[in-house]
Amino acid sequence: MTSRRDPVVELRGISKRFGPEVAVDAVSLAVQPGEFVTLLGPSGCGKTTTLRCIAGLERPDAGEIRIGGELVASAPRGLHLNPEARNIGMVFQSYAVWPHMTVFDNVAYGLRVRRLGRARVAERTRRALDLVGLGPLAGRYATRLSGGQRQRVALARALAYEPRVILFDEPLSNLDAKLREQMRIELVRLQKETGITSIYVTHDQTEALVMSDRVVVMDRGVIQQVGDPRTIYAQPANAFVASFLGVANLLPGRLLGRTGGLCDLEVAVGDGRPPLRLRTAGGDGVLPDQRVVLTVRPEDLALSRHRPGAGALNVIEGEVVDTVYLGSFLDCRVRVGPHEMDVQIDHDEELAPGQTVFLSFEPEHALCLTR
Amino acid sequence: MDSRSAAPAYLVVDGLVKTFGADRAVDGVSLAVPRGRFLTLLGPSGCGKTTTLMSIAGLHRLDAGLIRVGDTVYTSVADGIFLPPEKRDIGMVFQSYAIWPHMTVAENVAYPLEIRKVDRAEIGDRVAEVLRLVGLAPMAEKLATQLSGGQQQRAALARAIVFRPRLLLFDEPLSNLDLKLREQMRVELKRIQREVGITSVYVTHDQAEALVMSDEIIVMSKGRVQQVGGPHDVYARPANRYVSDFIGVANLLDGHVVAVTAPGRGEIEVGPAETRVRLPCRLGAGVAAGATAVLSVRPENVAVVREPPAGPHLPGEVLQTVFLGNSLDCRVRWGAFEWKVLARPRERLHPGERVYLQPDPEHSLAVLP
Asked: Which B residues 255-314 touch A at CB under 8 Å?
């Protein structure tokens, strides 16, 4: 068995090229036992290719992959284990649950194909069905299952192989919004109950935030940041991560200096107006005069119709562009010189386009990032 | 948002009934839309919204009712009037884009003008104008098959508005698009409608879409109108349990009104004997002292605190928290009831923790069951 320190899945410097295009560029990652790790990014970021390399469906051009301590792929040694020799389970977008079979047969099928003895097939199938809470429905036909139950069948089938890790490839993206929300929670609960190490691929940032122990944000084949959901949301490493996870206002500026661990920035707003002086957190390793980006979330901006008193910090004057009513809150866009900022405000506010408003934020709620 | 009462009605539907065999698909629906406004018919499948839309288009014959636009009667069962669809001067946009694949984008859009024998020079001008309006000017000479789903829907919209119809009807036009594109298109479509100023009726089952786009929303269920109002009305002041549940997320507790403290305000008693509590609230239309009612509180209008607060509150236990980035979705158990609460993301609440809930009285509403 693996000890707490030995990762279940380990990638070292994995690269994969398709012709001239580098799909995955020197990706390294260690996934711990029982961990739920999500690879998140837009299409073409390399997340699916990375997953397929782990599964053995792609052969990396560089790097090594270990599963359960065992080397399963090594470009320098020319080693490549086939998917079925890697001891992994997979769950795809289409559940691929067969309608003409019972729940039991759906789960047992893969084991029978592998020519396990009748008794072992029955025993493993029972155990997998009990794990996902489908024991009592073993004899039911798959057509008589709800969407959530089908998801459990797909998971039970992956678990029946007793894999060391389950790989998920956007399994929820075909579901409608309401069912998808239920399934996220359900899937995480099942994962925690079974304790199965999981690697999950998605382009849906909410899904990643809700489900993961750690999120790996990827762009153009490169890992941009690895961290728990709160960290990557509140302390994004760069402008890409800030804008990919949720909505971020990005204002380009210049670092003037520091005051007590906070950054003082200058942001130009054009129109002959003096530049804004704004104070933020972050800015690790940034040098004075360097070009930077200020990022602040719509929910961290306060909006007022009146100019705050003299000496107030981080005040931005702007003009309302429009508002979109979203029920639980109002999404308001405010023009600040050449920039448009998104502000999330209470739905009781009445705002008219063209109206002058004042935005403000706490220095701790904004970050200075390198451009 | 509540200025709707003043404007005179342009599209009027009165007492519409449509049966299919024994099934009353639309059961006495009436509505009135002022000129240039955007009305949404919202409800689950089978609620009668599409049948209502198709009746306005003249694609159904009615069992009872009247439909008129301006001074023109389109359908009147009482007077035996039925104007055929092609004479109703209506532009339609469907879920399937219904764009002709063998024509260019410009030819597709020009088609309704050609049938109407508009003169050639004017056709050119008007096609160019609407393509610019929907952001497809650079695509004019492309074949429709070369467009993405979102672009095809823009072309369909251009074709529907190019002949300046009296009415625009939309039947779930965005439901085939993926989520990000759908969100963009909502705002875009609304902007275009406002610019051309054509009176519009939009059918959807997507409540977020209805809130973002509409001047007015009609919430329907089982062939009947449940509520008519602006987006803020139906969200913040739902008429009954059904509307409250269908639009957004709500905590719904059965109770009865024990006191009326001021006009429109009172106290409601909720919960079983062991946990029963009296909460101050607003009273919805038709809710009086002694009445059985449902308390409706949105998740963002409940405060979660660790120390017992002053005033009425409910002790609970955190069951689950889900970090959503800009908010924290919490489930809190109070007796047998599970509260849904949206807390600030900077709150650190953990499962098993004892907390106290305090619904905001200003945003707690007692509605009809």
From this structure: 298-300
